[in-house]
Automatic annotation (TrEMBL):
Stated name of the protein: alanine transaminase
InterPro entries assigned to the protein according to its UniProt record, in alphabetical order: Ala_Aminotransferase, Aminotransferase_I/II_large, PyrdxlP-dep_Trfase, PyrdxlP-dep_Trfase_major, PyrdxlP-dep_Trfase_small
Superkingdom of source: Bacteria
Annotated family: Belongs to the class-I pyridoxal-phosphate-dependent aminotransferase family.
Species in which this protein is naturally found: Luteimonas endophytica
Keyword tags: Aminotransferase, Pyridoxal phosphate, Transferase
GO molecular function: transaminase activity
Length: 405
């Protein structure tokens, strides 16, 4: 029998957060092993719940959720998103420029499809959230990575970014607060990045899905107000700040001078129309989510579950001879690096597999985030603090064995 052929460019696409190691983890679970799985930033899987007033908003409207909505989303939800952006100082933030999608994931794909022609380049952070690379490749673009080096707090260097601009460059993608490294970008840096985009007429695409997940006084600066008249697409959603991943609700706010945006708005609208609309029940929670109630702040403050989980990871790395960590200032992950004797000949995949097979812990190898080095790994901060301390005791055992080998 001839076998089915698949899209060739898929061979360039990786999403290891749910890849081979996750498959092996399921096999082990089927054999009865009890695993601690730290591969996915899925709050609901760790006992977090969406705030009650969001749940209520959906329940109260459940009888209104049968029809399709407009392709860009429910008008009242779009108005709430636009108002949220206007409150931040985003210029030209009107509901007509809001696109609601099945998570930010769908909107990343749609917006790159709306933008890219074959061979166009997209400036992506390294490390990145790998969907950005995958969606660039699958929409016929070419990822061009700019470094966010550990020794510079995982922050990008605007001069390095500018040196990577070519006549084919179309967009500059930022992830702030950052997944996987937890960096939160200061205003002065964002201003320099806006200047690069302005000089080279790049679309700014900023993934701000973790915009409320901040620790120790870190300050989030939204990009769109700094971008002013420049075309800018800001992504946000309910998955992380509002702990409602499963509802699949994300949005993109287009800002900047409408004339400078050309046909982009129309392209987004058309692609949105082709998939009809986003999940409707979830859209009814958007107004409630943006009503000004801060439900994530207490979790990120001392004594809060995420803060204490982060503390557990920071302290575990600080007492390890083998690990180095930049304390995450935001988001739901830590991205430690292996140093010293254990780092000799280190291979992050082999390490992650050994940790899974011998210690029943699933982590994500750092190279899954499109970095050229292989001595990092990512864990999510979502488990109970004590469980994270136990995880790091187990990781330490493996690292110690390797250091002594
Ligand atoms: N962007 C980043 C940086 C993420 O970490 C994630 C999910 O982990 C997403 C986008 C996708 O989020 P959504 O659930 O809204 O599709």
């Amino acid at each position: 029998m001839p076998t089915l052929k698949t899209r060739e460019r898929l061979s360039e696409v990786r999403y290891e957060i749910r890849g081979e190691l996750a498959r092996r983890a399921r096999e082990l679970e089927a054999q009865g092993r009890e695993l601690i799985k730290l591969n996915i930033g899925n709050p609901g899987a760790f006992g977090f719940r969406a705030p009650e007033h969001l749940q209520r908003a959906i329940a109260d409207h459940i009888h209104d959720t049968d029809p399709y909505t407009h392709q860009q989303g429910l008008p009242e939800a779009r108005e709430a998103i636009a108002a949220h952006h206007r409150g931040r100082g985003t210029p030209n933030a009107s509901p007509e420029r809001v696109f609601i999608g099945n998570g930010v994931s769908e909107l990343i794909d749609i917006s790159l499809r709306a933008l890219l022609n074959h061979g166009d380049e997209v400036l992506l952070p390294s490390p990145d959230y790998p969907l950005w690379s995958a969606a660039t490749i699958l929409n016929d673009g070419r990822p061009v990575y700019y470094r966010c080096a550990a020794e510079h707090g995982f922050l990008p260097d605007p001069d390095e970014i500018e040196a990577l601009v070519s006549p084919r460059t179309r967009a500059l993608v930022l992830i702030n607060p950052n997944n996987p490294a937890g960096a939160v970008y200061p205003r002065a840096l964002l201003e320099r990045l806006v200047a690069v985009a302005a000089k080279h007429r790049l679309l700014l695409m900023v993934d701000e899905i973790y915009d409320g997940v901040l620790y120790d006084g870190a300050r989030f600066e939204p990009l769109a107000p700094l971008a002013g008249d420049l075309p800018c697409l800001s992504f946000g959603g309910l998955s992380k700040v509002h702990r409602a991943c499963g509802w699949r609700v994300g949005w993109a706010m287009l800002s900047g001078d409408p004339t400078a945006c050309g046909d982009f708005h129309h392209a987004m609208d058309l692609l949105g129309a082709l998939r009809l609309c986003a999940n409707v029940p979830g859209q009814f929670a958007i107004q409630a989510a943006l009503d000004g109630t801060d439900t994530i702040g207490p979790l990120c403050a001392p004594g809060g579950r995420l803060y204490e989980a982060r503390r557990a990871v920071i302290e575990s790395c600080a007492t390890s001879e083998h690990l180095q960590l930049m304390a995450p200032a935001g988001a739901l992950y830590a991205f430690p690096g292996v140093t010293g004797a254990a780092a000799e000949g280190f291979d992050d995949h082999a390490f992650a597999l050994e940790v899974l097979e011998t210690e029943d812990v699933l982590i994500v190898p750092g190279s899954s985030f499109n970095v050229p080095y292989r001595n990092h790994f990512r864990v999510t901060l979502l488990p109970e603090p004590e469980q994270l301390r136990e995880v790091f005791r187990r990781l330490e055992r493996v690292l110690q064995r390797r250091a002594e080998a």
